[in-house]
Design a protein that fits this description.
By secondary structure, this protein is an alpha/beta fold. About 35% of the residues lie in helices and about 25% in strands. The strands form 3 sheets. The chain has a 6-stranded mixed beta sheet, with helices on both faces. A 4-stranded antiparallel beta sheet has the order 2-1-4-5. The relative contact order is 0.13.
């Protein structure tokens, strides 16, 4: 549904995105991750048809149309990172303007205002809205046309808990209806909850693309079990390093890295040596730690 083919964008002497090749499939939710300045917003704006490639191409639909053409832009609803509306318009005025612009039926105004949950403020001037209310109003504008492609740039950055719950609900509904979602985020919880795949950009280059299954497997390999023992025999450490390379003693704890599958084997080896176990904790790999690894390896 969205295709980047050696997409490259240069601003002056600055390469924002370098030769990105990536497909976002119909009905898929894909998250773009990366540090500030990595090219995420440029990539999203190219998909929205707001900027043209320096080289390569960005296509929408099947068969693909260049993203800058009206035939492609009609497929897209885009939420920028920072939304602004005229201060003197009311929330309802804003929705009505964009509803007519996109040709949505009149009933959609009340539907999306309910989604925005503005707490009775739809008739108030936008200039009186808080940052969270503005973000919810922006989301309401984005869901108005029920377009098959949903592009979201840092959609949860300013949302309060009620707005966040509404956002998750609408994205999950869009996915259930077969729409395609491409979003950027610094909130790793968004990725774990919503994304079928995630792609990591560093300095404008794609460094990793993983499915949720692949992510789960990578995180499992980064799990750790800590066993507090009555003693620290070298023979046990040698055996643990055979079972789980990287095992080590830290004070009175034996630290055993690896997936949950190695833990029963490790505990059996400890028992066979007759060593008293005084405590045990286990934790799975963390997405934020793995993300920093990916960025560090490519920095």
């Amino acid at each position: 549904m969205i295709t980047f083919r050696r997409f490259r964008k240069v601003f002056g002497h600055q390469v924002a995105v370098a030769d990105l090749t990536l497909d976002v499939r119909p009905g898929e939710t894909l998250a773009l991750l990366g540090p500030n300045g990595s090219g995420k917003t440029t990539t999203l704006k190219a998909a929205a048809g707001l900027i043209r490639p320096t080289s390569g191409e960005v296509l929408l639909g099947d068969p693909g149309h260049p993203a800058s053409l009206p035939s492609a832009r009609n497929l897209v609803s885009f939420l920028p990172q920072r939304v602004t509306f005229p201060d003197t318009l009311t929330g309802r005025d804003v929705i009505e303007f964009y509803r007519e612009l996109r040709g949505a039926p009149a009933a959609r105004t009340d539907e999306v205002l309910r989604f925005a949950s503005l707490n009775g403020a739809a008739g108030r001037a936008v200039g009186t809205y808080s940052g969270g209310m503005l973000q919810r109003l922006g989301l309401a504008v984005a869901v108005l046309p029920q377009a098959p492609v949903f592009l979201l740039d840092e959609p949860t950055a300013a949302l309060d808990p009620d707005g966040l719950a509404a956002f998750y609900l609408v994205v999950e509904r869009h996915v259930a209806e077969g729409r395609t979602v491409l979003f950027t985020s610094h909130q790793l919880g968004d990725v774990e909850r919503l994304a079928d795949r995630f792609a990591v950009l560093v300095a404008g280059r794609l460094v990793a693309v993983l499915t949720q299954r692949e992510l789960h497997d990578r995180l499992a390999q980064r799990g750790v079990m800590r066993v507090r023992l009555a003693g620290k025999p070298e023979s046990l450490l040698t055996e643990m390093q055979r079972v789980a390379p990287g095992s080590r003693f830290e004070l009175d704890e034996l630290v055993i890295p690896g997936s949950p599958a190695v833990r029963p084997v490790a505990l059996d080896a400890i028992r066979q040596q007759g060593i008293e176990i005084r405590g045990l904790t286990a934790e799975e790999g963390r997405l934020d730690t793995f993300y920093r690894e990916l960025i560090g390896e490519s920095g």
